[in-house]
Amino acid sequence: MSTRKAPTKAPAKRKRAAGRARPAAGPYADFMARAYVMEVDAAERYADFADQMDVHNNPEVAELFRKLSRIEALHAKRILEEMGWKQPPHALLTWRWDAPEPPETAAHSEVHYLMQPYHALQLALRNEQRAEKFLARIARAPKTPPAVKRAAAEMAGEEREHVRLIQGWMKRVPKPAKDWDRDPDPPVLGD
Amino acid sequence: MTGAKLTKSSVDSVSVALAGSGGAGVMTAGNMLLEAAAQAGYYGLMTRTSGPQIRGGEAAAMVRVSTFASDSQDDRFHVLAAIDWQNVNRFASEIPLGATSLLIGDPAQGEPPEAFTRSGARYVPLPLKALAKQVSGGWPNMVALGVLGGLVGLPADALERAVQKAMKKGGDALAAGLAAVRLGFAEAAKVEGALRLAAPRSGTGRWLISGNEAAGLGALRGGVRFVAAYPITPATELLEWMSPALTKVGGTLVQAEDELASISMILGASYGGVPALTATSGPGLALMSEALGLGVAAELPIVVVDVMRTGPSTGIATKTEQADLNIAMYGLHGDAPHIVVAPNSVADCLATAQWAVGLAESLQVPAIVLSDQYFGQARAIIDRPEGAPARAPRLVAPPDADGYKRYALTESGISPMAIPGTPGTSYTADGLEHNERGTPSSQPSDHLAQLEKRQRKLDGLDCAEHWATIEGEGDIAVVTWGSCTAPVREAFARARAEGVHARLVSLRLLSPAQPERLKKALEGVKRVLVVEQSFSGQFHRYLRAEYDLPGEVRSLRRPGPLPFRPDEIHQTLAKWSRS
Amino acid sequence: MNAPATVAALTAQDFKSDYKPVWCPGCGDYTVLASITRALAALNLRPENVAVVSGIGCSSRIPAYTTCYGFHGVHGRALAAGTGLKVARPDLTVLVAGGDGDGYSIGGNHFLHACRRNVDLTYIVMDNHVYGMTKGQPSPTTEPEWKSKLSPGGTGLREFHPLVIALAAGANFIARGFSGDPSGTATLIAEAVRHPGFSFVEVLSPCVTFRPEQRAWKEAVHPAPVAPTEDPARAARRLMTDDGFNIGVLYKGSRPAFSPAAPKAPLSPSDLEKDFAL
Question: Cβ C25–A100 below 8 Å, yes or no?
Fold first, then answer.
């Protein structure tokens, strides 16, 4: 076995070993289904945030969230392709995560109508970090079956990639000013 | 009412009243008298009045028996019989007597009050209580029933059938009742100077029904299968009749916690596709204002029956008036066009309620039916009532209508309504102003478009001849509505006998107003008398606001609770036509 | 764990409409919407067979944000409209939604009677202890010391305890959720819909604009320390000492749901005419 690792590629392009028959059921399928749901939920939540930013006239952040949504959707699609699934697995309510939401999904309370791109990236960063922790814990756990361990470790590695990417992005966007959330107008609207 | 022969003497019609207090049972006896009239083939009308006590209070039953159908009371009562005189004088203005009237009372109960004797009516003492004691288990009200039946000229067997029908349990109570009635009947024969009824016309297919019941049945015929309501005098009997009736036809009545709940419940049911109705009176209608507007804005068909009572505020709950016209027409905030209809006879309560359901459903809009306590609680012997003209049912959206727009700007203004359960056409009904899709909108163009749509729906209403009852010819016209119609009719008949001819226009459709039709109906008319039971003249003001009235216009108006009597209208007409 | 389903069942997204909510970003109602859509999907319902009925207020905007049939009525009367709809159309699943002002103030009377009437529907209140839509007045659940323009020194009034009142008035299922826990709330809502009779789910849903301090609710909420009870007396004791932040199903009763009489063979109105014909 080579002691040198293959050079890391951009996460979107890495594919897991293709051609191996995927079991239809069992711990590996369950894990991949959960991973799929994690990605899809993240994609939907980012899309939700993008809509909110649209409605609240924050186009720059809307576009950023939309981009993040597309990326997560791609991750999800990749899982479908690898598993050879035609239909996505039904997200069952009985699947409980450690937290109220899947690890890669930010809570609704984390957005603000005046938030800056930097805030959005901070939010995304936290998402990736949580996802990495979650996957790494599965990879480390002694009870985890080997196939799942492998997949989890791989995915955790991808998440670490995402973390680095986002950190790089954050260097390229301006840091928010002290009064970023100042709005001199009072709230309006009444029914 | 067709072909009724009205003469100057009242042999075609006799009006009697029975009064008493403290459990005397005057209502029971009055109902039996009306039933006897029905059994004998006559037409009739029973109204009632009582003191404020829940039980044991003074009460009077007023029964008119005639050879022709009429919802009106006569000018005066021919007989007032009293089991006792306790506080009966409070009914003096409701039981007008004349010099030819009879006052029948039990001498053991004292003299009749001056409030009645001042009329010049003749006092005929009859020991009702003593007579009743002659029968084991006999009651004075049953003796009085026999007396009145005999005085009116009803056949004995009709009276006895009525008693049997009322006392289904039979046994000793029935035997005692019959015996007491016979005693009273025999006494009546001894009384001089009483009027006798002419023989009845052969009339098949008559009904005995109250206005409230007729409205309920009309609503069921119209398709109502859900009712939510809160009890209120004088609408409660409508609801009490409808509750088991609805269950029998597969519908449901829910007693709501208040009128605010009632109106919202029926809006919810209507949204679900089920024709729905509530019944109330003035105070309840006032509470329903807001949600009625929701019905207009969201285009939800519902029917609200307002059995009008004397107002304002709590007013006189047990008595009638025609003063809710304003709130029915103009009581919604914003510009909220809707349907307002009013029956003009007890029989018409059925057709008009049925029509209201049809109008509401086909135009997808709330409809208010202005009945009143006079109709609602009167029990009348009528010809089999006619139904309402048929109307198109609710326009419903088919499944998966592509790009479904609930509030599409159609030519007629009526847009198909999606019923929950239909795939592909989900929408949110909204009181917020909205665009064609139903999305809330603050755009001026959307507001204007939807206002026009909702108005257009009503403008396009083809009410054919049903918008009013029009009778007679002449250059003097009486324009009226609701329960004033019957006394106007009787007044006309008397006027005709004197060679005074007039035209009656009784509006049934109040909103949307029909100015062109009224114009046509009043062609050639030079004098218009507006008759109504409203102190401020709400109907007169409504007419002046919505129509052009020809020639000279006079208002004959009075608040409730006393009904108009034919003579008052007759004299007014005659005097005016002579001047 | 089960194998992933391969049938194309509906997902939560199928219950979300195209309308973008106007709620402030950060509002708890977003998660309640997500929880509702997730619950409806998990229950294998179809949008056309579900109706969402609401009153007036920020949270009452919710019907149009779903693909279900919606009814956006007037302030405080959502439970009445929902009752009428469910009794007339028992085949539909009816959710009634609104805020604490709509539900407990102007809607208070209907709340009492809806609990008592026990019609099979689910009432979801998004409670943020404030009137948001009219810009920040105290609501019945606002703490007595909270200062506002309408009540500058605070209301000084003891807050309304909706769960206690729901129990006393006869609600058949009582739960509290927190918008910070969408999957937990989704589970509560699904259970509430499944439970017959009147099911009441109060969801603490912070108002980011008028009550930003409610961010602290995240730390205040905690799972209810005991399992749900079927004993009203025990539930009453628990709810009377409830700190307002117990999360979970607190009471599950067994009263039969409102069920009006229905004849096997309905008559037609003309069959009733014999009551009047002479």
Answer: no
| DSSP letters spanning B340-357 | EE--SSHHHHHHHHHHHH
Q: Which residues of A touch C60 (CB under 8 A)?
A: 191
DSSP label of B466? G
Query: In the β-sheet with B509-511, what is the strand arrangement from edge to edge?
Result: B252-255, B226-229, B276-280, B302-308, B366-372, B339-341, B509-511
Do B464-578 and B208-383 have the same topology in CATH?
yes
Q: What is the pLDDT of residue C7?
A: 43
Query: Is residue B463 packed enough to be buried (19+ CB in 10 Å), middle (13-18) or exposed (0-12)?
Result: middle
How many Cβ atoms sit within 10 Å of the Cβ of residue C132?
A: 30
- B256 and C113 within 8 Å at the Cβ level: the answer is yes
Tell me which of C2, C208, C209 to substitute to probe the interface with A (most A C-beta atoms closer than 10 Å): C2
CA separation (Å) from B516 to A9, A97, C56, C247? 83, 72, 41, 66
Give C103's pLDDT tier (boundaries 50, 70, 90): very high
Determine the Cα–Cα distance for residues B367 and B365; give it in Å rounded to an integer.
6
Contact B428 C48 (CB under 8 A): no
CB neighbours of B260 closer than 8 A, spacing ≥ 6? Answer: B287, B288, B291, C76, C77, C80, C109, C110
* B284-333 per-position pLDDT tens digit: 999 999 999 999 999 999 999 999 999 999 999 999 999 999 999 999 99
Task: Inform me whether the pLDDT recorded for A14 exceeds 70.
Answer: no
Q: Do C184 and A100 touch (CB under 8 A)?
A: yes
**C4 has pLDDT over 80:** no
Residue B250 touches chain C, beta carbons under 8 Å: yes
Residue with tokens 């007419």: B543
Chain B residues 264-323 with CB within 8 Å of chain C: 264-274, 276, 290-291, 293-294, 298
* CATH class of this structure's domain A25-172: mainly alpha
The C-alpha angle B102, B106, B110, rounded to 5 degrees, equals: 100
ipTM, two decimals, is 0.85
pLDDT (0 to 100) of residue B454:
98
Which fold would CATH assign to domain B464-578?
Answer: Rossmann fold (3.40.50)
Nearest by CB to residue C135, choosing from A56, A86, A187, is: A187
Residues 58-77 of chain A with CB under 8 A from chain C are none
Q: Identify the CATH number of the domain defined by range B208-383.
A: 3.40.50.970
Q: Which residue has the higher pLDDT, C155 or B315?
A: B315
| Alpha-helical runs (H) found in B460-524 | 485-497, 515-521
Confidence of residue B573 (pLDDT cuts 50, 70, 90): very high
pLDDT digits (tens, 9 = 90+) for B336-368: 999 999 999 999 999 999 999 999 999 999 999
Q: Domains in chain C, ordered, with CATH?
A: 12-275 (3.40.50.970)
Q: Nearest-CA distance from A69 to chain C in Å?
A: 15
Question: Span C214-230, mean pLDDT?
Answer: 91
**Pair B147, B127: CB distance under 8 Å:** no
Q: Domain coordinates of chain B in residue numbers?
A: 10-189, 208-383, 395-462, 464-578
Which two tokens mark C204?
């603490």
Q: Do A100 and C182 touch (CB under 8 A)?
A: yes
pTM flag (> 0.90): no
Q: Do C30 and A108 touch (CB under 8 A)?
A: yes
Residue B477: helix, strand or coil by DSSP? strand
Q: Tens digit of pLDDT for each residue in B514-568?
A: 999 999 999 999 999 999 999 999 999 999 999 999 999 999 999 999 999 999 9
Taking the domain B10-189, which CATH number applies?
A: 3.40.920.10
User: Cβ C25–A44 below 8 Å, yes or no?
Assistant: no
Residues of C with Cβ-Cβ distance to A97 under 8 angstroms: 183
